[in-house]
Amino acid sequence: MMKAPIGILGGTFDPIHIGHLRPAIEAQGTLGLAEVRLVPNHIPPHRASPFCTSEQRLAMVRLAAAETPGFVVDERELRRNSPSYTIETLIELRRELPDTPLCFLMGMDSLLGLPGWHRWRELLDYAHLVVSMRPGWQPDYPAEVASLLARHQSRQVSDLHRHRHGHIWLADNLPIELSATRLRALLAAGQDPRYLLPASVASYIRQQGLYQPAP
């Protein structure tokens, strides 16, 4: 019997903030996700090394999950000594959850850059893709992505429940113009990050002295 779908949200989370959490919360409500798993990367393959350690980023993700009903932390990528490739995580999750639809949550910027991902053509063999809108990203799809959408886009929530994988859902979510880079700059400038990330995460950042300006 098919179980309710779950969401998978990966990222560096350096730090985790509302730009990560709010689209995932909306997807959880709109799509009826049983839970959302936050999966912090250990070695992100598409960007520079994180500013904070894996332990610090994990601590912040745990605090954010504790404040957000239905959100849990999945530490599997932090236990790897190799780059955090999404396909490997989805293969592991499919093996562990054979009767659960998996919804991999991503931004429109990631969808547009999908052909640069490791084994990207296999992602839909293991999960649905749920794509949130982001400010400044007009969906001028590359040919390969347009072809993928033509074959796999769905406008029926029921498709994400009845099938374990294989559909793309373009979410009509509230765009939030915030990046971790911008948030780190605000913190380094001594700005108050209130309402931009969970209060417990802001408190942790203050206690640990993270993202401070260079001496």
UniProtKB/TrEMBL annotation:
- Annotated ranges, domain Cytidyltransferase-like: 8-184
Name of the protein in question: Probable nicotinate-nucleotide adenylyltransferase
Organism superkingdom: Bacteria
Q: In which pathway does it act?
A: Cofactor biosynthesis; NAD(+) biosynthesis; deamido-NAD(+) from nicotinate D-ribonucleotide: step 1/1
Gene Ontology molecular functions: ATP binding; nicotinate-nucleotide adenylyltransferase activity
Q: Which reaction does it catalyse?
A: nicotinate beta-D-ribonucleotide + ATP + H(+) = deamido-NAD(+) + diphosphate
Q: Nucleus: present as a keyword of the record?
A: no
Write out the similarity annotation: Belongs to the NadD family.
Described by its record, this protein's role is as follows: Catalyzes the reversible adenylation of nicotinate mononucleotide (NaMN) to nicotinic acid adenine dinucleotide (NaAD).
**Source organism:** Aeromonas encheleia
Indicate yes or no for the key word Cell membrane: no
* EC number(s) reported in the record: 2.7.7.18
Q: Which biological process, per GO, is one annotated for this protein?
A: NAD+ biosynthetic process
Q: What are the protein's UniProt keywords?
A: ATP-binding, NAD, Nucleotide-binding, Nucleotidyltransferase, Pyridine nucleotide biosynthesis, Transferase
Q: Which CDD domains does the annotation name? A: NMNAT
Q: What EC class does the entry list?
A: transferase
* A Pfam entry, by short name: CTP_transf_like
